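Batch 3, record 17
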Amino acid sequence: VAAVFSRRANTVFAIVLVALATVVVVAIAAPMVMVRTPYGTDRFSPVTQPVAFDHRHHVRDDAIDCIYCHSGAETQASAGIPTTELCMGCHGQVWITSPRLEPVRQSWETGVAIGWVRVYDVPDHVYFHHGVHVSNGVACARCHGDVENQARVQRVTPLTMKWCLDCHRDQGQGRAITRITTCSACHR
Amino acid sequence: MSDDEPIKLRTRAEITRRELIELFAAGVALLKTGCIERTGEEIRPSVRRAESHPGTPRFYATTMTVDGYGTGLLVETHAGRPTKLEGNPAHPASLGATTAQHQAAILDLYDPHRLRAPEHAGVPSSWERFVRAIATPPPGELWLVLPPDGSRAVAAMVARATARFPQLRVATCEPIARDQIYRGSELAFGARLEPQLALDRADVVVSLDADLLGSMPMSVRWSRDFAGRRSTVDAGGSFARLYVAEPMPTPTGSLADLRLPLRAGDIAAACVVLADGLARAGVASIGLPDGLRTAARRRIPNIGWFERVVQSLARAPRRSVIAAGERQPAAVHALVHRLGFALGNVGATTSFTAVPPAGTPLSELQRAIDAGRVGAVIAIECDPTLRLGRVPLTVHADLRTGSMPAAWKLPLSHFLEAWGDARAYDGTASLIQPAIRPLHDSRSRLQIVAMLAGVAAYDDRALVRDAWRVELASDAAWNAALAEGVIAETAAPAVAVAPRGDAEIVAGLAAAIVDQGLEIDLAPSPSVGDGRFAGNPWLQELPHPITKQTWGNAALLSTTTAQLLGVEDGDALRISSGDAKLVLPAIVVAGHADEAITIELGYGKRGPIADVGANGYLLGGPIVRGAEVVATGNRITLARTQQEFGRHDRETAFVLELGDYRAHPDQLSHHRGAQPTLLGEREKSDVLQWAMTIDTTICTGCSSCVVACQAENNIPVVGFDEVRRGREMHWIRIDTYVEGDAIVHQPMLCQHCEHAPCEYVCPVFATTHSPDGLNEMTYNRCVGTRFCSNNCPYKVRRFNWFGYDRPATIASLQHNPDVTVRARGVMEKCTYCVQRIRAAEIRSRVEKREIAPGEVVTACQQACPTNAITFGALQHDTAMTRARKSPRAYAALHELGARPRTIYLAKVRDPEGR
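Prediction for the assembled complex:
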């Protein structure tokens, strides 16, 4: 009887086995690596806003404090996006004819809010509170980077749970479950 | 029931192969994105400076009117969206607590079944057309049908409408009328009077079929006042006594020291026996003829109860309260008023305030319709049962379509969308202010009456402002009244009373004492009231305080009556009286009066949610004699959350008798305290340790906490079929045990065990312990093995068998944004309102201070009318922590060693006392 398998069969079989194992490992590992890459966490891609607002100019040149516009950051859960009224407080006086401010004036006149694009966001099951972080000494730049040097704001931190926990665990007790590392500190 | 589901749910996994592959692909895509929210979501800030800040709730004071009486509430709003109602601590009818109905009213605002735009003859119409239609009404009388209301602004508009249309008549639509009380005071004192009770000053309270702590207009306040005289039992406070005679156990009856099951129709006789006893004891003498006394004696089997009541009343001159229920005839109320007067209670524990003259009853409107005199009927915010015949113009304005076959169907604004004013039971006035703009093209009751009055601008705020121009002259006063939720010093003044002759009372009592075999007693439902809340799914699914029935009503009867009729739980009974015929399932209730059947009203109405149970109004009533009751031989499926009410010698839900407890206080010491354990001590860190104490002595089972929890924690409604399968989702279950004639309510919620059995069996660490003593549930980790629920000895964990909140509807707008909406396949349970704890922690840390004692209030605690539920940190010295040192304290199922953080206080009652 002729041999059922050729001489190469063993080698082919071994290669197929290794290839299958590799596919399985890659299929599991690749998404895990992917979500940690800047692409996966949506970092370093400047976001285009409906108004060509430049933080460099307002923060660096005009020395306006973050809190002036993001007034909730020190006490509230949400830092807040300024109202059109706040923009118009200055831009009703300066640069009143600038075409770049046309959407702001339009919003003010029509009463339709400007549709800003969110840059930093956490999932809905995470209850993040700006006020408690800022009032416990976490500077804005710790999470938001050097916004004063960004023409268009981009996400610079991954906002993954590990990234949150790294900091929360760093407050003294390491991996022990503490008031700020227990599940319900962030998830309710 | 089977082909007409009470609420529509997707209860089967109907997935095709194609969908499965799509879902699989979507799952892989989700795996990739994982827990990252990408940029690009649109956010729109306010254009102008806003009052609210996103993420931070704001509270506004307003008033909810039920049965014509206002209760002050605080509306929690998130970014302009009302999400929860809470009691207003400054309002005398609330003191910060609410009823279940107040809690559930928020859901009506977002009801998907609400009317959205005016309709005429089934065709979409407009308010302008309606205004034109009523500007020249058809010839004949013009009738306006309104619910009872203390609103001054509405009254002013009704007056202007009457000036415009001299043919205008106003009928009051009041399914469960309070008129007998006022007619009683007319008989007794010659004036229509509202009895104001000071239960905090009463040593003896006698309720003759009066659900003082449950369904009466001031019951939230009265519950707080009465409970204050009971919860102090350990501090040596005097223990107020409560005697209750009633057919069906009520929340009031569950707190009674001595409860006499008595048919509603025999209360008149009871009243006479009581008066007779008091006269014999020389306490209060009211001349009653001998014939009446003998007739009454014949109706009353158990004279012992009355002797005890008389003894107690004799010992408490000027410190007692006697009250009779709404369904009792005027003569009973008159005699009760007179007894109270003779006992010296008037001016001490009871006072009387004036009430406006009686409204015109609907029967008069019906007579006018039948006589062909009526040109138009306009019913607002009520659903009158009328034979309209050929009335040319018929209008019905309400939240939802009712049973009134009107040509015009007008959407009514919810009270959270409208301006108005109301009067509380004690006369205190308060304003109704909107918390949101009308969601639909609706108008408020005030606005519709204003249209009728021909007031051009329907600026309801201005109308209310005008009505209170004298009291709230300045803007500052107006704003203060809005902010506070109460118009200061508007409580009605007490009226001096003097007794009149007895002849009419005696005649009325003689007519009321009759012997006619089996009687049907109709009562408001503890859940849906007189039916105005029948469209509210939270209240339909709320277990009955005594029978634990959901989604429907039943024929409630005693064991003896059930044996006579040959029925048991779930057997269908056909009850017919005159033309009316009802088929209802029987439910046997321990402690129900014999020879009587109680049917709760408000069910069997039209509508997608309300169409469950049978409509008891068809029988007439409120006390129906000579009805025919037959067992049909069929069975009716019941959806009940508890079937067995005996404790079977198990040691839980303890009842102690006061004398015995005072003599041997330490009977329960082996049900609390440390136990040997192999599990090791949990590290007690320096953070605040949260705990709850529940006093079963003062828990009436009113279930306000259950609905408050539902509103706060985004708990879904599951429907009749799912409740029947034991899949209800309420995080609080009020376990009721009947032990002899004692009824104990033991609210059962997650006990937050220090050695939590659920935590040891979770394979994915989805339920863990926090450093501050909470048993946490992390929904995103849960894979739905349900091991935790199986290992929980308290059976307080709830599993999401379906995606109950999917797809999102307008009702999803009610959701509390501070609490996760759980998905299908996830376990959930009471969190001790962790969102409120964390909010308080964050607030204190932002403000650089410690959390104050009593700062964290759970939703159930907040709603509790009696303060039976207390919560706080073990490190603080509060009423909660002091109560845990009481000899009455026990841990539920202590012998299991789970070390629950929730501690109960045993029920103390005083059946032997005098």
